[in-house]
Amino acid sequence: MKLTAHFTLEEMSFSETAARLGLDNTADAMAIANLTRVAACMEKIRALIGDKPIVVHSGYRSVEVNRAVGGVSTSAHCHGLACDFVCPEFGVPAEVALAILKSGIQYDQLILEYGWVHVGLTQSGSLFRREALTKRSAGAAYEAGIRA
Ligand SMILES: [Zn+2]
User: Fold this and answer.
1) Strands 109-112 and 117-120
2) Cα 78 to ligand 1 centre (Å)
3) What pLDDT shows up at residue 73?
4) Which of 17, 38, 114, 120 is close enough to 82 for a disulfide, judged by CB 3.0 to 4.6 Å?
5) Cα dist. 102→47, 92, 97, 145 in Å?
6) Of all residues in the chain, what percent carry a pLDDT higher than 90?
7) HSE-CB for 87 with a 13 A CA cutoff
8) In the chain, which stretches have pLDDT less than 70?
9) pLDDT in tens, 95-123
10) Which pLDDT value is given to residue 124?
11) Cα-Cα end-to-end distance for the chain
12) What's the confidence (pLDDT) of residue 39?
């Protein structure tokens, strides 16, 4: 099912971990509504980086799947409010994150992770913090700003 022109519900709710462990990762109606807003934001990012293809690593994660991948319990992914992605044709994750940081695109959290970019939104109606962070490894603390 298409959420927007370039993003489908299938890619936004696919989880390799869920498939491997046999966990359910079906987005409910609320999560689908949120994923649609995330996909609309991802369309803006796609346009920003020259309409290059975006590879989604993770969008929606059920509580079980989020726990299995070691995600924080408050993760926006559990509500379908976040997307982890890369865009190799545009550049490395740091270049993608910096481009988003310099743009006027609205997000709640932009995180340069170790190998991908995380963009998170808030529930509809809440203010976007436009918080930018860097996390250099799985065990590392979050640092303020996008640090290549
Ligand atoms: Zn994420």
Assistant:
1) antiparallel
2) 10
3) 85
4) 120
5) 14, 16, 9, 12
6) 91
7) 25
8) none
9) 999 999 999 999 999 999 999 999 999 98
10) 83
11) 35
12) 98
Distance 50 CA to ligand 1 centre (A): 23
- Distance from residue 124's CA to the centre of ligand 1 (Å): 19
Beta strands in the chain (DSSP E): 55-58, 82-86, 109-112, 117-120, 131-134, 143-144
CA of 133 to the centre of ligand 1 (A): 12
Ligand 1: distance of its center to the CA of 77 in Å? 6
Please report the pLDDT score of residue 126 as a whole number.
Answer: 85
Cα of 106 vs centre of ligand 1, distance in Å, is 16
> How many A from CA of 45 to the centre of ligand 1?
16
Q: How far is the CA of 64 from the centre of ligand 1 (A)?
A: 15
| Full strand arrangement of the beta sheet holding 143-144 | 55-58, 82-86, 117-120, 109-112, 131-134, 143-144
- List CB contacts of 36: < 8 A, sequence separation 6 or more: 3, 4
